[in-house]
Amino acid sequence: MIWVIGGTKDSRDFIESFPFKEKLIVTTATEYGGKLLEGVKDIKVFCKRMDSIEMGIFIDENMIEKIVDLSHPYAEEVSRNAIAISEGKKIEYIRFERENLISEEGVLEFSEIESLMKYLENLSGKILITLGSNNLHRFQNIKNKNNIFFRILPKWEMVKKAEDFGILPKNIIAMQGPFSKELNLAMMRQLDIKYMVSKKGGDTGGEREKIESAKEIGVETILLSRPNVDYPIVFSDLNKLIQYII
Hints:
This protein has 246 residues and is an alpha/beta fold.
């Protein structure tokens, strides 16, 4: 069996294109990730967040011979654990990594979330944060929190998490992407945004539309770099990945 670490649009595209779906077993860390695969036939899907020990058990129980990692570019712990397990079990690990966009002039980039937070704390204008819900806790005690707007998925638990960290409802934008350039523009104009903060999610993550809309109206773009993971085998083209596996 081939274990697909999924939960992303990339993983759905891969699964839909893969000709031998009966050989795939897919895991997602969340129920939401599992819903991305609704309607795809002939695959087994398990929605469960696993640590390294649980990964090892999963591999043994399902007689996994190959790991194909299509998790989110920022799911660093998942990828590192899967690489370590594959080496211990002596099975092949293959990574699909979204292609990085070419850095544009005027875009500020931080390699660490801690240095990014220090920079944001000293800004006086309004800020749009599109880093996802996993980083909400970092903003609990930031002094300019009332000037920061958080765009997250419209899921109850994520909105509640934001409120638990002291983020007011007026500062929560609960919307499902992808977001067009026009929608980003309208949102930034409406909220009088001066700074836009994003992960380097590539085209799949809407990075290009965010940067282009910010540039058009003079909003400063601030990016958090992807984690630096040494993948043993990596592809950025789904067709080439599929051909390699076949």
